[in-house]
Amino acid sequence: MDYKVIATCSDSKARAGVITTDHGEIMTPIFMPVGTVGSVKAVHMSELRDDIKAQIILGNTYHLYLRPGMDIIEQAGGLHKFNSWERPILTDSGGFQVFSLSENRKLKDEGVTFRSHIDGSKHLFTPEKVVDIQRSIGSDIMMALDECPPGTSDYQYAEKSLRLTQRWLERGWKHFNETSPRYGHRQAFFPIVQGCTYVDLRQDAAKHVADLGAEGNAIGGLAVGEPVDVMYDMIEVVNEILPLDRPRYLMGVGTPANILEAVDRGVDFFDCVYPSRNGRHGHLYTNRGHINILNAKYEMDDTPIEEGCQCPACRRYTKAYIRHLLKAGEMLGMRLCVLHNLYFYNHMMTEIRDAIEKGEYASYKKKKLEGMMEFDLEAPHDGYNIARNWRKG
Amino acid sequence: MDYKVIATCSDSKARAGVITTDHGEIMTPIFMPVGTVGSVKAVHMSELRDDIKAQIILGNTYHLYLRPGMDIIEQAGGLHKFNSWERPILTDSGGFQVFSLSENRKLKDEGVTFRSHIDGSKHLFTPEKVVDIQRSIGSDIMMALDECPPGTSDYQYAEKSLRLTQRWLERGWKHFNETSPRYGHRQAFFPIVQGCTYVDLRQDAAKHVADLGAEGNAIGGLAVGEPVDVMYDMIEVVNEILPLDRPRYLMGVGTPANILEAVDRGVDFFDCVYPSRNGRHGHLYTNRGHINILNAKYEMDDTPIEEGCQCPACRRYTKAYIRHLLKAGEMLGMRLCVLHNLYFYNHMMTEIRDAIEKGEYASYKKKKLEGMMEFDLEAPHDGYNIARNWRKG
To answer: In this predicted complex, what is the ipTM?
Structure first.
């Protein structure tokens, strides 16, 4: 995996770059739609490629490991073959879902035991095992196993947790270097910086991660309950230390505003369930802010969700019709909302890259944030004030 | 609305024709996907047009009347504008759903009172009112209000019911001729032949309907519990009387085999929820018969649902992946299965038209029916033996 910075900003740390994988190029900064079980919910792969123009998607190791299971994915020749997505795939380590979804989990130095949320069966994830699973999945970018403590953890717990994450990282890194890809294409391995909201722990973690010299690095454990300004501060602390010549992935973040701020601070990769999950509930992103399409005022509104938007929903349907579909419980309604939101996110990333290349990122960001304030009283402020992060898929 | 027969068969009553409406041509015999509340469940209008190549869809008056309601549809300028479907639309009268879905319905000479299955509100459908509603919807083909008695009704009830249907038909026909389209395009009105499984009642009903001289005629009250051979006999009895120079619509029918047999007996129009509803449950139509994709034997099957099929599911995905999506409760799985089934039905209608035009319908039908027997032990025999008809959407 190669990464090249192609433009930087004079008035911020924002940068545009290009990553080359064996499944094609990724222009950064980039947003990855979440394809939990190998499918971005409700979205056809051709829509993802042609309408949303996604360059990379995220798969959840925890979900894929439990269902369909590695036998079926290996038999298909890896996830790319199984789900027919020809472009890059990143998989998480599964750790986050073990902590958020499964029951009776037990954290030990060896790894974490847990029971499946599907059938209650017992499993063990170790730093080595999640590398093996991701080798079976065949993702282009694999993630290290980590513990993600709550954003409100006290120092003592945060430090103890970080030490475990660091021991796991060393084991995972070693195992990564001792094993090979299964399907003939290259796989990168990204370590994750933890350390909660404590500057010294974040610095310690960032140095430890930077010293590995991995092909890319991730920042985890943010947008998990801490105030949004603390999140931005932590990104700054960590990005002071992470190498400039490797891409940086801020895990599970976030709202359009979060992404604009994190790009400003030198982040290149994002993923979040907001656009798809909010879309399924009729909460839609526009350049003027959130709207809730179930609002009665849209009952007879014969305009698209956003004038000028080139997504498949806005090119064809009115708010009144989409609202009717959601009210009637029609699958097509959810699907159109998800398509709109994913298009909005992805299109914003295109604008972001353009602005960086033109050296106008600061003014673009200011204008975009101001525009989005207009409608923001109408819908829940998911994350505009407090970033929350539930990457449950 | 104009109808022209363009080919007939020497060895059957099958005929191919073309109907011209103000929303374009319909090549018959044709299958209409069911778009209950204005949307064919899970399917995007562009898929319906470009992938499935549907020429006409069916909307349910009962559903549209209750939700979104006529205010919203009129405000949009009719259903075509509301749901963005530019091709022809047929609406039923709503009567069938009143009998199958709503509570506390009361049949009177005036019409039928019922309570909404959504909110319990009380409504009255009269023969005149369902014409008015369909004028508001703006469908290209409207249907008369009728009562559809169970396929097992005794003679006395069937006759009493038919007389009511006939009185309603005369009132509806009169009202249709005294009212005008609202949106500038022509609307046709099809009367419906009832009469249960009694030859003399069916003949009486067919004569009464034929005498009206409507632009097309429908056969209702079949595939509602009677043996399939009785259904075929009734079609023959009725089609002896209905005029040859008007299209004939067999309502709510049916399986691929039912359609092949009914075309053989001179039917031109079909609608049925089987392809979409069965698709949502993973029951798939193929040229070798039904398959149930949830069957364990497809767990690692890396072939498409049907080799050579040009539907969006078969062009891209394997049985193993689609099965995984359904097992994981993913919307995309249902959507792919619905697309496949609707494509199968629509593609079969293309084959049927080709065979009629080539004068080879009898041999085509024989071969198609034999082929479909291969897999038929594997899935429920919905309608291969007994045709059932629940057009609940």
So the answer is: 0.90
